[in-house]
Specification:
The complex is a heterodimer of chains A (about 300) and B (about 80).
Chain A lengths: L2 E8 L11 H10 L13 H25 L3 E6 L14 E4 L3 E6 L2 E6 L2 H13 L5 E3 L3 E2 L1 H10 L8 E6 L9 H16 L4 E7 L16 H12 L11 H6 L5 H11 L4 E7 L5 E7 L21
Chain B lengths: L1 H14 L3 H7 L1 H5 L6 H9 L2 H6 L4 H4 L19
Classes of the chains: A alpha/beta (about 300), B mainly alpha (about 80).
Chain lengths: ~300, ~80
């Protein structure tokens, strides 16, 4: 009998893994290409260092949950940003069914085995249930995956991955309801398997990459999302439209909707703080499986995990 | 159709490490592989991501025109995706 042993979500903003100083500055100068330089938000080095410490501490809690969960596989739900896919072929959902996956972020290299057998088994069940997933035997790891992986499951460990890509990037995206339904279907399939599966969704929260609105963060909207998750009311978020999420820079919340559908009506411990650069940084750990360890931690909508 | 081609060139600049150098060395030969309008060629020549975005390039692809500027050669941005 299979089990969902952890369900979690975390932002993947690249500034969470950049070295402060020249590397961070060089990167951000480019990332802000769509904004006049004088409008770019630049936290002080002191503020950035404090934030980086808080981020690492919070990721550390997710890492503890994952280690306690002892999964057979980590199902990683993230969006592509023109790495694996381009306008000639945009899959709404794409499941990795290869044997390994590799990527690079600055000086960090990443290589993980993939659980091909379980991925193919899940793919068949989902297709039988009416989810017409695309699939790929060769996928590259990109920052939407490597940034959280660096903290939560650095390479070299025993746990293989299964990558699942959700199209949050190119309209028309799947609906929140459809993403929720896919998550629920994944949970049913995992329960029918023999595998212990941990699920990590990445991305968000409010941000506007590559657009003139870069730097805006809708903190009220982000907090309302996370409040629902705290109360185990994530199901209600399936009522949102893609347009409503896009208006507040939360297209990547579609990745989270898969996690929400998988977790069901279970409360979560959440943390939230805007990074002072371009993104509302959010984390969630649902209180199921090893995630129950996080239930002892109070949630915080105005800061990350405290020391 | 040509907006696809502009985005394709930028995507190739992102994913093919040698293309920026090739384009700098022999722009006419490389640009001939893409079906670009005169306006798109002009915008590429400015090396300005915002100009490209105004012609319909995706904002997160437009910034890859900066791979053509030597002052960005060592930027960490090109070591991640």
């Amino acid at each position: 009998m299979g089990e969902l042993v952890a369900v979690m979500a975390a932002s993947h903003a690249p500034n969470l893994l950049l070295e402060l100083g020249k590397e961070w500055n060089d990167f951000m100068n480019l990332h802000y290409s769509m904004l006049p330089p004088e409008k770019a938000h630049r936290p002080s080095l002191e503020a950035a260092q404090r934030f980086a410490t808080d981020v690492q501490r919070t990721f550390g809690l997710l890492r503890s949950v994952l280690e306690a969960a002892q999964p057979d596989v980590l199902l990683l739900v993230a969006n592509d940003q023109f790495v694996n896919f381009f306008y000639n072929n945009i899959p709404t959902f794409c499941l990795g069914v290869g044997t390994e996956t590799r990527g690079q972020f600055a000086r960090h290299t990443f290589a993980y085995p993939c659980h091909e057998a379980l991925a193919r088994w899940l793919l068949q069940r989902l297709i039988d249930e009416g989810f017409d997933l695309a699939f790929s035997e060769k996928l590259e790891l990109e920052h939407t995956q490597t940034v959280p992986l660096y903290y939560v499951m650095p390479p070299g460990g025993p746990t293989p991955l299964i990558p699942l890509f959700v199209n949050t990037w190119v309209p028309p995206q799947p609906t929140p309801r459809r993403c929720y339904a896919l998550g629920a279907a994944l949970a049913r399939a995992i329960a029918a398997s023999e595998a212990r599966v941990a699920l990590l969704a990445t991305g968000g929260l409010s941000h506007f990459p590559g657009r003139p609105r870069i730097g805006e963060v809708d903190v009220d909207f982000d907090r309302r999302l996370l409040e629902r998750l705290m109360r185990g009311e994530g199901r209600a978020l399936a009522d949102y439209t893609v347009a409503e999420l896009a208006e507040v820079g939360n297209e990547e919340f579609l990745n989270w909707m898969v996690a929400i559908g998988a977790a069901g009506d279970v409360p979560a411990t959440v943390f939230y703080e805007p990074d002072g650069v371009a993104t509302g940084i959010g984390f969630a750990i649902w209180h199921l499986g090893a995630g129950r360890l996080a239930a002892a931690q109070p949630s915080n909508l105005y800061g990350l995990l405290a020391a | 159709m040509s907006r696809y081609e502009l985005n394709r060139l930028l995507y190739d600049l992102k994913m093919q490490d040698g293309l920026a150098a090739e384009l700098r060395a022999d722009p006419e030969r490389v640009l001939a592989r893409y079906d670009l309008s005169p306006a798109e060629r002009e915008a590429l020549a400015t090396r300005d991501p915002r100009q490209l975005r105004q012609l319909g390039a995706h904002g997160m692809l437009a910034l890859y025109v900066l791979r053509l500027r030597p002052e960005y050669d060592d930027n960490v941005y090109w070591t991640q995706r």
